[in-house]
């Protein structure tokens, strides 16, 4: 009886905390809608007040996500920087390993792990706290099972890269690095469910501290392994894998020991093995749209490896893609914020707030990306020396800098619009758009310009930029023409359908 009373008190306290947080967010959301609907107030006064409310909401969502993604990306970037100082071959090998092999697994695992965010968010909102831990375990089981066949790609990376036409020297060196990344696949399988589990409860700051600590350890161990212990590319890959496992273990220890997770993590459960097929179908659907985008620029690296002077081209592209990936992490944070803000406002029946949120989040992301593009163009002749001391590579990076700047600007718009599409429930439409723009336009055009017109890496990148521009224009057109009143009705209809078809999943 005492235990039941204690549990009741805990549930009551947690519900109050959850309700208090929800009330704050709902109050801000309602305030924004009231400001925008007040047509009697001067236009610029409404704009100023609404922008202030929206920016505060946006900051609370985007800033923590950006920090986590940036820190995790810097871990991989630091490995590339260390290996780049060993020589051009090593830089090309790590570039091919990271962008040609690792990104394949990263995109698939991140996409599948995103299903946890949806289900955990629903369960947390419905106060089905114990189900969050079950979903975490269920997703980890599926991702670990997926990691096993993925491991074959890593093991046979050398013949696969050679089959794709990569030079033997680069393929051989890349394979050595990739062998050291095999433990990282399983770290991904555990990390993304844990990460989404925490995000569903708005627990992001601990992940940021953990990622920062892992970065410090990683940089120290990488320097020792590469320059002091002479472990080479294999050692660099193993240290990178070890650093990702530090993140996984530290986050799991936090879950087990933190009071904030005492109701959502109740221990390991056999219930995690039930309903795996339904969970797999949902996870696979979540992966499709993300993978189509993640693999797009991976193909750019693979195609560039087929050029005549592949080593210099890959080195230059490696530097550009690393910088692009770093700035892209900021856009990923805004992508998540856009998805949450739009879906929240549509679900709350606030069409004006949803439309205004799209404008604010897109503008913020665009301004930051333009600033990054300007910095790249200013330091175009020297920026490559962060990664390698080769003057030939520096000259090649300088030539590619305008394409990098254009990519950064587009990345300030396109990912945010994808987040808006997710918030509106346009995932299937965007998947078709991605296939058409990326793989039916961008890749063929890049191959044509790169090889038939003898433009090399610049031609390949130009063609693939064309695909991204076309996709961005389509998403902009759809977003600008959106009937937000109708989108509110569609959101309410989808919520009713979800309740009817998916609620049993929460009650398993």
Automatic annotation (TrEMBL):
Keywords, in A-Z order:
Membrane, Transmembrane, Transmembrane helix
Please give the biological process terms from Gene Ontology that the record holds.
xenobiotic detoxification by transmembrane export across the plasma membrane
One Gene Ontology term, aspect cellular component: membrane
Mostly located where? membrane
- Residue ranges spanning the membrane: these are 57-81, 101-120, 132-156, 168-191, 203-226, 232-256, 286-307, 314-334, 354-379, 400-423, 429-451, 460-480
The residue stretches assigned to a coiled coil in this entry are none
Q: Where is the composition biased (Polar residues)?
A: 8-20
Membrane disposition: Multi-pass membrane protein
The UniProt family comment states: Belongs to the multi antimicrobial extrusion (MATE) (TC 2.A.66.1) family.
Q: What is this protein called?
A: Protein DETOXIFICATION
